[in-house]
Amino acid sequence: MRMAVDFEECLKDSPRFRAALEEVEGDVAELELKLDKLVKLCIAMIDTGKAFCVANKQFMNGIRDLAQYSSNDAVVETSLTKFSDSLQEMINFHTILFDQTQRSIKAQLQNFVKEDLRKFKDAKKQFEKVSEEKENALVKNAQVQRNKQHEVEEATNILTATRKCFRHIALDYVLQINVLQSKRRSEILKSMLSFMYAHLAFFHQGYDLFSELGPYMKDLGAQLDRLVVDAAKEKREMEQKHSTIQQKDFSSDDSKLEYNVDAANGIVMEGYLFKRASNAFKTWNRRWFSIQNNQLVYQKKFKDNPTVVVEDLRLCTVKHCEDIERRFCFEVVSPTKSCMLQADSEKLRQAWIKAVQTSIATAYREKGDESEPSDRCKVIPHCGFDLHFPDEASILKLDKKSSPSTGSLDSGNESKDKLLKGESALQRVQCIPGNASCCDCGLADPRWASINLGITLCIECSGIHRSLGVHFSKVRSLTLDTWEPELLKLMCELGNDVINRVYEAKVEKMGVKKPQPGQRQEKEAYIKAKYVERKFVDKYAISSSPPEQEKRMVSKSCEEKRLSISKLGPGDPVRAPPQSSVKSNDSGIQQSSDDGRESLPSTVSANSLYEPEAERQDSSVFLDSKHLNPGLQLYRASYEKNLPKMAEALAHGADVNWANSEENKATPLIQAVLGGSLVTCEFLLQNGANVNQRDVQGRGPLHHATVLGHTGQVCLFLKRGANQHATDEEGKDPLTIAVEAANADIVTLLRLARMNEEMRESEGLYGQPGDETYQDIFRDFSQMASNNPEKLNRFQQDSQKF
């Protein structure tokens, strides 16, 4: 029998005994650390294993879904079903393995640590206490004087009792030590042996399972070899057929169209035609037409039920249409309606007309009627439908010069073509300083962006940004998504350098290191701290008020604006002079005047622009504050078209819908309208600005943009869901204001939006974007407002003439 500490030495309490105790106690302390670490690692392994089982089960369910999807292929369905069943068995085996691991390692070793080691620690405490008492008794017994007999007897009795107690507790302590040293070997080996037997059973079960599946897998492998050979043969046949067809002459393929009245499937002729809609916009849509069963029908998708255009071809006629602008048109007319169609070429038109006429004649022969179809039908002449706008005299005068269907839309198409043929969104955005690498981790060539922050991101950081929620970051792909022109301009006015100067202002002071590419957990913590908690924003770096010279210039401009507005009548429009040719933002990037900004001549508040002279108040809060609060900073920067300062204000906690009580509760979005910048409005909207929040006069951003004649902003607000039916304190809605100001472009946009809204409500298409023509017109206006804003200023020049 091997003992860690000798009982005899215990009674002597010799230095050898104390040295042995010290060695054993150190060994037990280290053993406890090792066992705690092993238990924690076991727990982590079990948790990871359970997560693996969950993921494996999801993968197995995916295989089963694929098997059900392949129900028409017996080989694939049977194979995938067998494999998914085998994987399910393996998942069950894994689950049993982790349960046994938990019992053998975690539970058993934890019990050893909590029970046996706890008893050892309790015995150690008692031993140390009685040892100290013994030392005190020995010292007291040695110090007592011989002439004091009473003290000598007392000291002797205490020493005797203490020695007796020490020997008893010391022997118990030594016994606990020796039992622990003996037991720990069996406990550790027992738990590990149980763990290894669990693995042995797991692998035996897996081996047996796949041994049974082996013959089937072997047969499937042989069958797969045959399938590969068959696939290669089919590929060669298809390549040969492809080559044969490719050698055919398709230059005049449309002239070889044939129609077969006696076709087995009843389809005489089929193909694509453009059909003019019967709605107010007269839009043209491409549909798949066919002549079958004595009817003319069309489909948008293959699975859709065919829409019948003509129920009985005997009661209709077909004719050419040369009185409309589109080429290759023909019309199928019945007694109740007409259908205007367009082919892709003249030969196709002739083929369709001949097919319809032949089908009409055939239908009459089948019914035993020899009369001509033209004797029974009434030919309805084609008449075009033009969309008319308000008939006020001022509007009719301006329509001739500035109708969106002529000048405005043509220029919009030019700008759209220019954008499509120019640089891509990726190239344009990456040209901005700092945008060539990820804003958060520095990875080169980022392909994603946060549109409300104006930064570029790598794919991993973009996923973390998505997890923050759209109220913090709105992620979009620079290569896969389509980009509106105003949004692209917004990205070009900010950039990684500008945003990082705000959101990483204190990174170096705090000693925080930016995460490197590939450090997922570090990235998550850093991005959350940067954008959600805003830990690195310098809370005291709030921009101060403008210098005295700027204040004097602003005050002078305000006075000039008051004088100019006081001379206007109630229906007179506010005229804005041309904007300067080049501006520069805080990032040092120069921008030309075609950035979508519609200028206003002076710095005044949105409400003072329309107030009577007697009711206007000086904007002291706008000019004289030495340290602006974030809301007021955002309010000022919105008018100044300074996106970096706006981003700084939002980083400092500014409310994007902050209302200035000193300026009739005007909002930053209203100030952006007054400043005339389309990009500033887009930035506020992307960051949650309420497009329908109104001031005390009941005027929202759409009202102010209409009064100022900012067509691009009107188009933007309508696209963002602005309520055009809202009225101000004078009872005027935006359309009434636009009609009084004789602004044809804005009247056009408002009426189109209202008509589209009514059509969607009548057809029950809530949440739908609307008619294609409506979308095209608004898209053209957006392109023009961003790329050619000077063409939209045509209204101010024309209004001066009238």
Q: What's this model, at a glance?
A:
With 802 residues, this protein is of the alpha+beta class. It folds into four domains: 7-240, Arfaptin homology (AH) domain/BAR domain (Substrate Binding Domain Of Dnak, Chain:A, Domain 2, Up-down Bundle), CATH 1.20.1270.60; 260-375, Pleckstrin-homology domain (PH domain)/Phosphotyrosine-binding domain (PTB) (PH-domain like, Roll), CATH 2.30.29; 405-532, Arf GTPase activating protein (Annexin V, domain 1); 548-801, Ankyrin repeat-containing domain (Serine Threonine Protein Phosphatase 5, Tetratricopeptide repeat, Alpha Horseshoe).
Describe the structure in your own words.
The protein starts with 6 loop residues before the first helix and ends with a helix. With 802 residues, it is α+β, with helices and mostly antiparallel strands. The chain has 26 helices and twelve strands. Residues 368-423, 543-626 and 798-802 have low confidence and may be disordered. The protein folds into four domains: 7-240, Arfaptin homology (AH) domain/BAR domain (Substrate Binding Domain Of Dnak, Chain:A, Domain 2, Up-down Bundle); 260-375, Pleckstrin-homology domain (PH domain)/Phosphotyrosine-binding domain (PTB) (PH-domain like, Roll), CATH 2.30.29; 405-532, Annexin V, domain 1, CATH 1.10.220.150; 548-801, Serine Threonine Protein Phosphatase 5, Tetratricopeptide repeat, CATH 1.25.40.20. The chain is 57% helix and 7% strand. It has a seven-stranded antiparallel sheet with strand order 4-3-2-1-7-6-5, covered by helices on one side. The protein has helices spanning 7-12, 15-69, 74-143, 149-246, 346-367, 393-402, 404-421, 425-430, 459-468, 485-493, 496-503, 507-510, 520-532, 548-566, 620-623, 630-640, 643-651, 668-675, 678-686, 701-708, 711-719, 734-740, 744-763, 772-787, 789-792, 794-801, and strands at residues 267-276, 284-292, 295-299, 307-310, 317-321, 329-333, 338-342, 448-450, 455-457, 475-477, 582-584, 590-592.
